[in-house]
Amino acid sequence: MPVDKGVTLDPARTREQILQVATEVLYEQGLDGVGVAGLCARAGVSKETLYRHFGSKEGLVRATLEARSDRVTRWLREAAAAAGPEPADQLGAVFDALAGWYAEPGFRGCAIVNAAVQHHEGAAREVAARHMDRHLELLSGIAARAGAAEPGVLARQILVLMEGAAVVADLHGVDGTGRQVREAALALLRASAAGGRGPEAGSARKTATAR
Amino acid sequence: MPVDKGVTLDPARTREQILQVATEVLYEQGLDGVGVAGLCARAGVSKETLYRHFGSKEGLVRATLEARSDRVTRWLREAAAAAGPEPADQLGAVFDALAGWYAEPGFRGCAIVNAAVQHHEGAAREVAARHMDRHLELLSGIAARAGAAEPGVLARQILVLMEGAAVVADLHGVDGTGRQVREAALALLRASAAGGRGPEAGSARKTATAR
DNA sequence: AGGACATCGAACCGATCGGTACCATCGGAC
DNA sequence: GTCCGATGGTACCGATCGGTTCGATGTCCT
């Protein structure tokens, strides 16, 4: 009886069920677009159960976004790792993965960014800041291995491309966005790796690492 | 009596007052973060007046965002025009202007994008799509004058940088974001203007114009 | 003076919000 | 069989939501 207790009446299972439904609904409807009652109805649980597991709607939002941040981070790391040792290949693989995501039906931008932008205080913004830190870790590694003069700066420029791509693909249309942004990221990587001395001086100046 | 009727009791004045307050409040609190009653209180008008002018909260949101889109578009066009004839200077001036905006106290990202992301239907998304079209117009002109192989593609890549920069500056911190993104945009411009044949093939492939 | 128009303030509407309390029920451990 | 923890269902709370209506007040134009 260490693990795998009964099939039904499993608190962990219930929690997962709520989280899964909340992930879908909060993404589709927005943080304020659905009430706790509606959430419970779609998850097939009672309000009391939801509040026992998450304490408040805010708690549910935090747990949902943190789980999502974990999944996305893992997903991108694996995409990069599977692309072999070349930094440019890894970066290309990351943006290939993102491009596939943008093209999925029901894509509405980055759930974490969307949530963070709806309330300027609360859990969502903290999760979003941490989420971007994680992206930066991955990108700085790639930038450093590519020999970028300023890996931190290049990583941040590519992060801007990632976040911007989600917004543009969502609000302005997906067509070509994935490929175009992939090429832009690779161009920045090339320009930075080509050395501080390009045909016209380096592409990135010395700036703070920020945040 | 053709124009400039009385000083007080001027419907156009009242409308402007409501719009101005709505611009601030909807940006600070979010679309769902404030009720019509609160809006009226801050604007010093009655609900009846607001509804007579805008018909509904949605109508107020649309009018507010459209006015904002007009102002931002004009602002960026003037920044570019004031920078002289060189495309690279114009692009640099646009991103300088944006960098200044990110650093302003109370900056919370692009109001139009933020609004559009909160509801997946409604006026905000239409305004946002049109807003980006206007940005694209400006950027394509610069790209074309710079001799970019594919001005439309380059413009879209730079648009992604613009929108991403606002998100990152808002959620991850402003430090350096403005300069870094400015340099990234200029690097893309250089890479694209250097000719389709770089050291490693062009930076942008043939893709649909999107949307 | 008079009428048309604009506005305020407040009451009011039904619906929904996040959150709590209570109780019957049911599965699993012993 | 017996008890306990997890649960569903439901009613309920005060607050707020977007939107409507009405009457009193005031300003303009003629």
From TrEMBL, chains A, B:
UniProtKB keywords: DNA-binding, Transcription, Transcription regulation
Binding region for DNA: 35-54
Span of domain HTH tetR-type: 12-72
InterPro entries for this protein: Homeodomain-like_sf, HTH_TetR, Tet_transcr_reg_TetR-rel_C_sf
One Pfam family here: TetR_N
Domain of life: Bacteria
GO biological process entries: negative regulation of DNA-templated transcription
The protein's name in its UniProt record: TetR/AcrR family transcriptional regulator
